[in-house]
Every structure is written in C-alpha cells, then in structure tokens.
Write a structure and sequence with these properties.
The protein is of the alpha/beta class. The protein contains 18 helices and 19 strands. Bound molecules: 1,6-di-O-phosphono-alpha-D-glucopyranose. The site of 1,6-di-O-phosphono-alpha-D-glucopyranose has 18 residues, from loops. Its cofactor is Mg(2+).
Length: about 550
Amino acid sequence: SLAVDRIRSLSDQHPKPSNIHFQYGTAGFRTLGSILDSVMFRVGILAALRSKKLDGKTIGVMVTASHNPEPDNGVKLVDPRGEMLESAWEVHATVLANAPTTDAFIEALDTFVRTLKIDLSKPAKVVYARDTRPSGPALISAIEDGINAMDAEGRDAGVTSTPVLHYLVRAINTKGTKDEYGEDSEEGYLRKLTVAFKKLVAGKPAPPPLLIDCANGVGAQVAHKLAEHLGDAVRLIPVNTATTTPGALNNSCGADFVKTSQKLPPSLNSQLTAGQRGCSLDGDADRLIYYYMDSRNQFHMLDGDKIAALVAAFIVDLTKAAGLDDQIKVGIVQTAYANGGSTKYLSERLPVKCVPTGVKHLHHAAEKYDVGVYFEANGHGTVLFSPESLEKLSSYEPSTPAQSTALNHIINLTQLINQTVGDGLSDMLLVEVVLSHKSYSGEEWDSSYVDLPNRLVKVVVADRNIFRTEDAERRLISPPGIQAKIDELVRRYEGGRSFVRPSGTEDVVRVYAEAMNRTQADELAFRVAGLIYDETGGDPGRRPV
Ligand code: G16
C-alpha cells in the first residue's frame, strides 16, 4: 500500500497554491515557475506510479518551458519508448495536480491506484532533467521529494535538452535488448548522431560553417559538445549561448522568435552574411528553424514545412535508388499551421495528414506510415521508421552497388534521426546531410515551393477554455456563431485561410491567417483577432493591433 505517512509529511512541504487550476496541456504543465512546486512534487509521484504500472520501466520527467519566457517553467512526462505520456494519463495528472490539500491529494492518489489497479510492490524508476531556467533547481528538488515519497529509484540527468532526455529514456529501457537504442548517456547520444553523420557525408566536400542560434538556452551546451564531436565534418558556430544572463533566454532570439516575427534575431544581423545559412533552436532544443541571406542580403526563412519537404523528397529518392520504393512508402503529417503552399506541394506528391497541434498527435499519426515525416511549421518534428521498415532495411539484399550505397544511407539516417521526439540538433544534422548530398544552397532548397504570406497573432481573452475546435483545429465549434463570422471574413480575401485555437502552452488564443499577399494576410489575421477579442471580452488594454 501507499506509504501514507511519508507522502503526507513530504506533501505538506509542497502545498498547492489556492485559486490556481493546473492543466496538463500541449506539452505538459506550463505556467510561471514560481507556482509550480506542488505540481512538480506530484508529478514525481505520478512518474513513479506510471513506472510501476509499466512493470518498472523507466519513465522520464523533463523540466522546461521550452519556447516560453524565462520566468515560465513546466514539466512533461516521457513514456518508456521515449514518446510523450499516453494521453489517458494526462487527465490523471491534471486531477492529481489540482487536489486542494494534502488530504485530498492522498485520497485522489488512493482512488487512482485502485482504479488503475497499480501494483505498488513493483519497482519504479524515473530519470529526470531540466533546462537552464533559474527556477529549475528548486523544481527538480520537489520532483525528487515525489520520487522519494514513492521510494522509487531516481536518476538525475542534470541540465540537458528535451530530446536528450527522450533519447535517454528509450536507451535505458532498451539496454541489452535487440532494440537497443544507444548508450544511455548524453555522450552516447552525441556519439550516435555524429558517427552516423560522418558516414553520411563521407567523401563530400565540407559545407561552409553553420551559425546556430541557441536561444540562450540549454541547446548552447549540447551544441558546443556536438561541435567538438563533429570536428571538421561541419563547422558549427553556436551563438546566443548566454545561458546564465538573466532574461536572455528566448529573448529576441530562438526558433519561436524567428518563426513568429519572420525575422532574423537582431543579434545575428551582422553575423549572417550574403549566401550564408544559419538556424535557430528553441529554449530546450527540440525545435529548429533554418534561414539564409540571399545575394541581395534579403532574409529567407526555411521553417518546419520546408524541412519536411526537403527531408521527405530525400528519403523517397533514396528508397527508389535502393529499389525499395514499392515496399517502403513515405507519408507526411502536418498541422493546420502548415503553410498552404507546402500542403499543396506535398499532397501532389505524397500522402499528407493533418492533425491537431502537439507533437504527441503528429507522432502517433506518423507511426501509421512506413516512414512518417512529421513537422510542425514551428520547426518541431522528426522522422519515424516503422518496425517493419527497419526489419526490411536490415534483411534487404541490394542487387547493385548503387542500391547498396542507397540502402546504407537510409540505415545511417535511422541512426542520425532521433526517432523519439522532435530534436533540433538531430534535425539540423539531417538537413545538413541532405544539403550536402544534393549540393543545395539555402536558395535551392527554398525553391521547391513558395510560401503563402501568413501571419500569427496572439489574443489575450478572459477565458481561453471556452474555445473548442474540430477538424484538426481548423474550425471553431465554441463559442457558437464565431466560426461563421470567421468564414465571412476569410471569403473577402483571395486565397484566404484563417483559424483560431486556444494555446496549450500560454494563456492566449492563437490566430493564424494566410492570403495571396502580405498586406492581406496581416489584415485578415488582425480582423479575425479583433473579432475574437470583441466577441469574447478581452482585456480592454490588450486589443490586438
Ligand atoms: C510546444 C509543443 C508543440 C506546439 C507548441 C505550441 O512546443 O510541444 O507541439 O506546437 O508548444 O503549442 P500551443 O500553440 O498549444 O501553445 P514547445 O517547443 O514549447 O515544447
């Protein structure tokens, strides 16, 4: 049974703040770091229970608020194969996080253990890590209290990126099995990626150096180590690496800044020269956005959609060259944020599926393809090879040297790509491999299709929970009547498209719009935002302008 006395005395040290409702959202719990102490303690307990439920498999806990501002923090749970927590448990997490008192929490815990028939005599193992946020260390110690309250075994993976933590979980759980994923350390991760990368670019001329904007986050640390492992294979120049400067994290830099403002971070202005390419990670290094300066010093962004298009075409070419194209089919997963230009281009070539925002949704949809390429437009994504495809790759006998070379390339890609979750650095190496094989510059990569002008706007409303969507978030069903008004606005713009959804990581509603030209896209976005604001009673001082 539960060690009620121990749980009680530790829980009393982590009281839930009153009047706050916590919610396990798009990427776990996320809000101001200063109010997350009780959530962290309870997540520590929940992770241990999840481990017991799964027969002692190691569960991951990542403390990060990724692209959000520095005072925010958050926590997400990672399931044994390195994927996001099973969604049924998100509800349990929310219930446990909101029990108002220690007594109520223990009662909820007891009910939970009985309902799910969790065998408490099983062992429990949890591996945890955090990003560089100042609130991180205290939140980690709250998680440790939760792990200790359950007498579970904890492993501190220190300060590292979200993708490394996901990798570790899978590596630990597959150790010594036929599915062994790699050595269970950050070093092991770096070695796995760079060994595969070097094989893939062997014999190719070294590309020009690549600037990486690390968002002043944990990616800086991992990128530095990666650069050492890579040596001359590709020279990385990490910038925005000020992880200890207060307020610097994600501030006018990083993948979210670039994607949302469609601009180069000002700190890179003098560094990115004509013809040069660069890329930005986000605060926990699971997103990646590329860009380049053209010969006229114009900035061009290459977002998650462009990465998906580049990578999918490359893998299709390789399966053809290997003679495997009728056995291994590539499919794409996007969200409503995917640029209309990309959806048109891709769906003329490959199967494309649209799912709601959140890596967990994309990941599951991508698992249904032989090779599933999934990317959110914001640069969060990866490629999944199904177990059957991996099997085919290992048993296939190529009939020509050219087929054999292509086959080896695909096998090396399965090693290079972090298949547990979107991984900014692994994706970056993947892009570099394709550019090198195709001898593409940023400009050539960009030329596959033209992005429709688009605009993202945040609207602060009184209660974002009244917003409900359907059709993979492309239509609002609540509040009633608003979708018809959006449709009416959209009809007035040539090639217009717009949708509205509540964010799962910030207390805002997001509005996306695209149209045939920039002015129209901006106008449509602000009209829809104004409509939402007026209809749902936003804060008077914060009407979108
Ligand atoms: C998280 C999720 C992403 C999602 C993003 C924005 O990213 O992992 O899948 O696209 O939040 O979500 P929302 O629009 O619901 O706020 P990250 O990089 O912050 O973990």
